[in-house]
Write a structure and sequence with these properties.
Layout: E1 17-21, H1 22-32, E2 36-37, H2 39-44, E3 53-57, E4 67-70, E5 72-73, H3 75-83, E6 87-90
Parallel strand pairs: 1-3, 2-4, 3-5, 4-6
Length: about 90
C-alpha cells in the first residue's frame, strides 16, 4: 500500500533558460562599454554558464542600439531591441 500520495510531475524534456532582462543588458553595455553582447561574451564575463540557454525578456528599458545573441527571446523584447536600432540573433 502507498502511505504518501503522489505529488506533481517532472517533465524530463523541459528546457530551462537563464532569463536576462533588457535592463540588465543596458547595465552590461554601460559597464563594459560594448555594443555587441553575444553568448561567448556572456560566458567569458561570467554572466551565464557554458551550458546555459539564454532567453531575453522585456523587463526594463533599453537606451542604446545593441547587437544581442541568445537562444530565445520574447516578442516584446525583440520589438524593443529593434526599435532602438539594434538587432537580435537567435542561435
Amino acid at each position: 500500500q502507498m502511505r504518501l500520495p503522489k505529488r506533481g510531475f517532472k517533465n524530463i524534456n523541459r528546457v530551462e533558460y537563464v532569463a536576462i532582462n533588457l535592463a540588465r543588458l543596458q547595465a552590461m553595455s554601460e559597464k563594459f562599454n560594448v555594443k555587441k553582447i553575444d553568448l561567448d561574451w556572456m560566458i567569458s564575463n561570467g554572466v551565464v554558464g557554458k551550458r546555459d540557454k539564454v532567453k531575453i525578456l522585456a523587463h526594463g528599458e533599453l537606451n542604446a542600439a545593441l547587437t544581442v545573441s541568445a537562444h530565445a527571446c520574447s516578442e516584446a523584447a525583440k520589438q524593443a531591441i529593434e526599435q532602438k536600432g539594434g538587432s537580435l540573433n537567435l542561435v
